[in-house]
């Protein structure tokens, strides 16, 4: 059975929707970071799916590697922010933005 590009796009859209809903509805900073990672991975699925249907061109895979590198840097910076937020507030909830003005 051959999987078409529509199935890949549907999967990536569902993943992006789950990530967006997780980011918008949760107050925990760690869950928001994980939701961003899910959204970035959905972009990777789209890039590789488009690359699969153009075998002579590898731009999609190159961009996917860049997205992975950006995601790793985002995770490192995000975890540093979480650690400093936890040291100040003893919580990682993001519903009190006025506490971040220190």
Explain this structure to me?
The chain contains three helices and no strands. It is an all-alpha fold and 102 residues long. It has a single domain, classed as Helix Hairpins. Helix 1 packs antiparallel against helix 2 and helix 2 (29-52) packs antiparallel against helix 3 (59-89). The longest helix is centred in the last third of the chain and has 31 residues, at 59-89. It is elongated, with a radius of gyration of 17 Å. The protein starts with a helix and ends in a 13-residue tail after the last helix.
What features would you highlight for this structure?
Helix Hairpins; 102 residues; mainly alpha
Architecture per CATH nomenclature, i.e. the level-2 architecture:
Orthogonal Bundle
* CATH hierarchy, class: Mainly Alpha
Helicity range:
over 70%
* Largest beta-sheet characterization: none
Radius of gyration: 17 Å
Instruction: Write the CATH fold name.
Output: Helix Hairpins
Mean pLDDT: 87
Low-confidence stretches: none
Form type:
elongated
Number of E-type strands? 0
Total helical segments? 3
Q: Please state the structural category.
A: mainly alpha
Give the SSE order as H and E letters: HHH
Number of domains: 1
Strand content: under 5%
Ends distance: 57 Å
């Amino acid at each position: 059975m051959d999987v078409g590009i529509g199935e890949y796009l549907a999967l990536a859209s569902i993943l992006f929707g789950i990530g967006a809903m997780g980011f918008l509805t949760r107050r925990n900073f760690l869950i928001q970071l994980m939701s961003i990672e899910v959204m970035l991975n959905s972009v990777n699925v789209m890039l590789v799916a488009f690359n699969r249907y153009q075998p002579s061109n590898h731009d999609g895979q190159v961009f996917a590697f860049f997205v992975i590198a950006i995601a790793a840097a985002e995770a490192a910076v995000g975890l540093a922010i979480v650690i400093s937020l936890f040291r100040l507030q003893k919580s990682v909830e993001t519903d009190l933005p006025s506490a971040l003005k220190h």
